[in-house]
Amino acid sequence: MGTGLTKKTTRSRIMDVSIIPKKILYRAVLGKIRNSSRFFILEKDYTSIRVIGNLTLIVLIVIAIITYFITQLNIILALVISAISSIAFLIVFGDYIRSKILERHQKFDESAFIIINSLSINMTSTQSFPYSIELLLSKSGIDEDYKKYFQEMIYNFNLGVDEDEIIQESGKIFQTKKYENAFQNIKTENSFIDSDPDFLLRVRNGIKLIEDNIVIFIAISCLLPLVLSMVLSFLLPSDSLTIFVFPLLYAIFGTLVLRFMQNRESCD
Amino acid sequence: MSKLNCTEFDFLSNIAFRLEGGENLERAFFLTEGVPEDILARLQLGEELTDIVSSIDFKYPALTNLFTSIDNADETDILERLMITSKLIRIREETLKEKETTLKVHRRRIKIIRFVTLVVIALIAGFSPIFSNLYEFINTGEFTTSLSILSYLSVSFLLINLLNNYYLLKMSNEKSIKIRLIIVIVLHVVIVIGVRFFLVGVIPF
Question: From B37's CA, which of A60, A168, B10, B72 has a CA 20 to 30 Å away?
Answer without folding.
Answer: B72
